[in-house]
Amino acid sequence: MKNKIMLTATLLGLASNVHSFQSIDEVMKINRENRLAVNSDWFTVSEDDVSFYMTYNGMDLENHKRIRNREIAYKALDMIKNAQKQIIASVFLFDNMYSKTKPDFDVVEELTKTLIDKKQSNPDIKITVILDPLHRAYSRRTSPSVERFLKNGIDVFYSDLLPTKAASKIGIQETIGHVGRILDDISLGLFGSIINTTAAAINLPAGKLDGHQIDLEVAFTASLLKANHRKILVTDTNNGNDFETLVSSANPHNGSDDSTNTSLSVKGELAKFVYGILREDAAHSMLRQASIPLTIGMPKYAQLSDASKDEYELPKYSPKNLARYFTEILPPLPYKKEFVSNLEEGVKAKFVSEIEVKKEALRLLNQAKPQDHVRIQMFYLSDPQIIDAIAKVARQDGRENNPVELLLDPSKDAFNSIKDGTPNRQVAHYLVNELKDLHLNLRWYATHGEQNHAKIMSITNENTGKFQIFTGSTNWTGKNMNNINMEANLSIEGSKKLTDKFNNTFDRIFNNLDEKVLYTWDYSAYDLNITRNLNKGQEIVKEWSTEKIAKWIKDHESELISIYKKKYRSQFQELTDKDFTDWAKEKISKDSSETMRSVRYIVGSAANGSYDAKKFKKWKKKYMKKWIKGEKLGLVAW
What we know:
Blueprint: H1 2-20, H2 24-28, E1 42-44, E2 50-60, E3 65-70, H3 71-82, E4 86-91, H4 107-121, E5 126-131, H5 144-151, E6 155-158, H6 172-186, H7 191-201, E7 207-209, E8 212-214, H8 216-222, E9 231-237, E10 242-248, E11 261-267, H9 269-290, E12 302-303, H10 306-312, H11 319-328, E13 339-340, E14 348-352, H12 355-366, E15 373-378, H13 384-394, E16 404-408, E17 413-414, E18 417-418, H14 424-434, E19 440-445, E20 455-461, E21 466-472, H15 478-481, E22 489-493, H16 496-510, E23 517-518, E24 520-522, H17 528-541, H18 546-555, H19 557-568, H20 577-590, H21 592-608, H22 613-633
Parallel strand pairs: 4-5, 5-6, 15-16, 16-19
Antiparallel strand pairs: 1-13, 1-14, 2-3, 2-11, 2-23, 4-9, 6-12, 7-8, 9-10, 10-11, 14-22, 15-20, 17-18, 19-24, 20-21, 21-22
């Protein structure tokens, strides 16, 4: 009997211990549901606590110089400088990969130096940076900025992308990724090193990225074809009594600095909520790193500064130290849950990520009325559901005098390389030429090496008081909107201040309202016939030497002048023919982007010969399939 009592007491004690045991999530105060596919409630915000920022470009036709506006970078720098207690950022591109020349405005150096200066002047401030694995070349590379961060007490995390959805329906990349992770776990974290050593032993070829080898470990991870594509900054304001978030389409990256982008900032409880989303991602990366017992070289998911490693003995697995780190360095931020419905009046804002971005875009489009003015500016547009929703709005009865305005990137420029127009030119052709009865005005941003990288929509109606604005990191493609990439957008309703600022800038750009400044071209500039000739010309010209290109331009100067006369003579009526010819010659020498576009067009037109309907139809069928095929495979865009 005595033994039975003792056994019962022991079992009760064990049960009590099991009941009182806290999971690692409870210890770290994290909620994994808040990492991906987030759809927040609507937060009430003050009109004074929301702002819109835009970076954009134009071409000064008189002086052949680019006009640049850099609102977003300056806003981010101000937020960092004014922070006192907490800074956390999650960005896709940040460093100087491939860049060998110093840009006019070194946004990477400006941000890196400002963060380090802030940490040095205020050692107690907590600064955390979350990056896409691209920054470590998908292996164990440490970029120059990250090296400087770690030396100065700033911790860096890399998002773990394997848990997000497969990038293709076939899923072979995902299978490879999961097999690699299982083998990495079985080998206690040494799988990457093992296959790299094997590859070296049998002399498998490897390329280079920024001076670092691309090996088999890199290939396994890169084959996932997805990214942490977010661009978020959260800082404290008012000496830690409040918070502000900046959610943007802009990468703080020198190769992207000239591109057109948009962003929204919000202060208050929603900013604290967004901080919690980033905290979840950092915690996930820390736990993933802590689960790898053996690591050769730099950690892949959590690179901590010496100060953090010494103080917390991380990233090795230790619930006690993990709890301390996520209490002291990245503490949970409580926020007031004063939610409202989207039907209530006043200014309100919400945060959405991944597939919830698509749902929000569809909600806004599906609720648009014929009297609402719809403006969309987009880097990549290819998702079939979104395209159908835009077409539905553009087909509404009563929209005859109120067309949907769509400003697209021509899908031409990508970090000093020339693209073939996929997917935007196929989608534009589909909307303009294949669908019927659409009230749609589609124009192209006149890019000169940069990109129309914005992803924004406003829907407004002064008479009904509708003021909706929606922007962030998310391209409107299947890859960006279906839980493959990690994305982040803000949706704000009720703020006339925000929509007025964007709408006024959009209208200036869309309609080229600034005198002798080129922002956009009409649809015909990149219709499929033009595109066919441009692409053919690119196939030929890309093989030419610099000397051959220069000689061709000199020999065909009159043809180039003739093209510019058709395009621009009406804007320079005050010039004599001789003066305009001199202007055109100067443009040829100074505007290399448009000059090369004209070269490709002339060369491609000559190679394709006179228009042949049968040949064009065959080419068009193949070209249009690239959009659909790319969308199905998830290969359209980052």
